[in-house]
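Continuing from the previous page...

OK, I double-checked the sequence for Glucose-1-phosphate adenylyltransferase against my notes and this is the correct one:
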Amino acid sequence: MGASVLIILCFHFTPDYWRDVGTLDAYWQANLDQAAITPELDMYDSHWPIRTYAEPLPPAKFVQDRSGSHGMTMNTLVSGGCFISGSVVVNSVLFSRVRVNSFCNIDSCVLLPDVNVGRSCQLHRCVVDRASITPEGMVIGENTDEDARRFYRSESGIILVTREMLAKL
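Thanks. Re-ran it with the corrected sequence; updated structure tokens here:
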């Protein structure tokens, strides 16, 4: 009776990452998932590189405002070219070249490229379209009726803000 050679191979399989982002709620959630401590799609995994064009931008900059107000950023992705001055930004995603002026509170938001958030704004659970400029003191996500009148508000309460909507205010 001859000896047999048995080769055993083991592989750790994980399901492919896929998110349907066809609705405002799904788009908002898929972006905020990336700001989680351990996102399902780990963009920092060197074994699974992201191959894309990276626009040459300066690094994000965080400063205190002239009155000495210190900001805070936590559980947030901040892209290159962003500038945050003495504001609090939590559980959010800031795309490239976003500017957040002093005394703002931003929570659970997705700010697309070139957004400029005016001083003393309060943004909560919203997606702000590219190149939008929110006026000083704007409050979004606190008053359901007012948000639905001025912007698009999904059934679950996510608010879409566009340049055109802001221009009508």
